[in-house]
Specification:
single chain, mainly alpha, globular
Length: 295
């Protein structure tokens, strides 16, 4: 296997595990302090390990005036990509909304092929399709997903506009991030993007009157873990984007973040895993194996 492909697969899996673990610990806090508060503190705490990494090797890449302008834009764009996701989860059924949002990985792969001229061979396309089908299964019963288009008015409306907006924003952000990080030292750049994202969430929370104060001290350990695993996921994805040209591989594999979340919930929270989710897990693993063997 080519070293660049190996890095793409490794960083994509790192993103999957990081976001999967972050979502698992988010289950402990969201019901108590809300989505936006959890998101804000996760983003803020994630600044610290990036700052440590930067201080260990304080090198800043040379940036043009246009690239300096892109830094705050990417940070604001990142925060605005997450907000409609949480609004959609609040309005609609998570079992329907989550697999729709997971399709951002396919959108990124398509955009990468169109605008970045990434060549996706047939065997890799089959592996991508396999992973995506597994993502749909693991996030919910496909019959419920299909009812979004065949059911009543409520199924078609609740949260759908927001999640489509989130897909467009997040997919575009990943492509822009890839182009911005290409062949650059990603640590200081991701640090600045993260800072601007956190500030944007703070402003949004204040505008909406959200309380960001944490009264229950027992939640801090979970918020720290959320921040660490979330920034680890972004770091892996950023590494993959900066070191390889295989945007689609990094995006597809990192988009399977529900797999580790469900496994952890089964092992530690004793949550019941449905047969459909088990099938989805097997399909995702098979898709990853196909991607590894055929790349």
């Amino acid at each position: 296997m080519q070293p660049e492909l190996l890095i793409a697969i490794f960083t994509g899996l790192g993103g999957m595990l990081g976001w999967g673990f972050a979502d698992f610990f988010a289950k402990k806090t969201i019901d108590k302090i809300g989505d936006i508060t959890t998101l804000f503190w996760g983003q803020l705490i994630g600044v610290l390990p990036l700052l440590v990494l930067f201080l260990l090797n304080p090198s800043i890449p040379e940036l043009s005036n246009l690239e300096l302008f892109y830094l705050p834009v990417l940070g604001i764009w990142s925060a605005l990509s997450y907000i409609p996701v949480y609004i959609a989860f609040g309005k609609g059924k998570v079992s329907l909304i989550s697999p729709i949002f997971a399709s951002y990985a396919v959108v990124v792969a398509i955009l990468s092929a169109i605008f970045l001229h990434e060549i996706i061979p047939l065997n890799r396309f089959i592996a991508f399709l396999t992973v995506f089908i597994g993502i749909l299964f693991i996030n919910g019963d496909p019959r419920s997903f299909l009812s979004l288009f065949t059911g009543g008015k409520d199924n078609k409306v609740s949260g759908l506009p927001e999640i489509i907006l989130a897909i467009c924003l997040y997919s575009g952000w990943l492509i822009a991030l890839d182009q911005f990080l290409s062949d650059k030292n990603w640590v200081p750049l991701l640090l600045m993007i993260r800072i601007f994202s956190t500030l944007t969430l703070f402003v949004y929370a204040r505008m909406k009157g959200r309380n960001l104060v944490i009264i229950d001290n027992s939640l801090w350990k979970y918020l720290v873990l959320i921040g660490l695993f979330d920034v680890a996921a972004f770091s892996f994805v950023s590494w993959g984007f900066s070191a390889t040209s295989y945007v689609s591989i990094v995006a597809i594999l990192s988009g399977a973040f529900s797999l580790p979340t469900i496994i952890l919930a089964r092992l530690f929270l004793k949550e019941k895993v449905t047969m459909v989710q088990t099938i989805g897990s097997v399909i995702i693993i098979a898709g990853i194996a196909l991607l590894s063997l055929n790349s």
